[in-house]
Amino acid sequence: MDEYIQGNYKAAARGFRKFLELAPNDFNGYYLLAHSLKHLGDLDGALKNYEQALKINPNNVDAHIYAGILLQKKKDYDKAEAHYERALEILPGDSESLVLMGTIRYESKDYDGALAYCNKALEIEPDNARINYEMGRILLKLGEKARAVEHFKKALELNPCYSHADKALKEISEQ
C-alpha cells in the first residue's frame, strides 16, 4: 500500500499480486491491483482485476464505474453501459454514472440521448465542472453555440484549470 500511495505502481502491483496469493478473495487487493495496472497503462489487466473485484463485491459503485470507463475506452459501449447502469441501480442518481452514460451517447453520435443524461446529471450536481463541460460539447453538436459557451464558461468558473473547457472556448472564438 505504501508503494501505491507513493505512486510506485509497478512495485505496488507486485505487492498486491503477492497479497492476493495469500488472500484470493480480497476485494481491496483486486481493486488496488486494478488501479495500479491502470496507472501503468495495462488497461486489459486493470479491467480483468476490476471485474474480479466485482465478483467478490458486485455492489461496489466505484469498481463498476472504473470498469465501465476502461470498456468505454475500448469502445465496448454495451458492456460499459451495463456497468454504469448497475452503478445507477446501486446508487440511483449518481451524477458520475449519468454523465458517463451521456458520454457513451455522445461518442455514439446520439446527441439527444447524451443531452438527456447530462441534464439529469446537472439537476443533481449543477456546480460540477465536468458535467458543464460535457453539456457544452453536446450543445455545440446540437448547434446551440450560445448555450454551449455558457456551459464552457461555467466549467471554467468552477475549475479555472479545466483546460478542455478553455480550449473549447478558444476554438469557438476563432470561428
Could you characterize the architecture of this molecule?
It is a single chain. With 175 residues, this protein is mainly alpha-helical. It contains 11 helices and no strands. It has helices spanning 2-5, 9-22, 27-39, 43-56, 61-73, 77-90, 95-107, 111-124, 129-141, 145-158, 163-173. α10 (145-158) runs antiparallel to α11 (163-173). It starts with a helix and ends with a helix.
Short descriptors:
single chain; 175 residues; mainly alpha; Serine Threonine Protein Phosphatase 5, Tetratricopeptide repeat; 2 domains; 11 helices; 0% strand; elongated
DSSP summary: helix tally: 11
What is Rg?
A: 18 Å
Shape call: elongated
Q: Report the CATH superfamily of the largest domain.
A: Tetratricopeptide repeat domain
Portion in beta strands: under 5%
Mean pLDDT: 96
Which spans have pLDDT < 50 for at least 5 consecutive residues? none
**CATH domain fold name of the largest domain:** Serine Threonine Protein Phosphatase 5, Tetratricopeptide repeat
Total beta strand runs: 0
Largest sheet: none
The CATH architecture assignment of the largest domain turns out to be Alpha Horseshoe
Can you tell me the CATH class of the largest domain?
Mainly Alpha
Percent range of helical residues: over 70%
End-to-end C-alpha gap: 49 Å
User: Helices and strands: which structural class?
Assistant: mainly alpha
Number of domains: 2
Give me the strand/helix succession: HHHHHHHHHHH
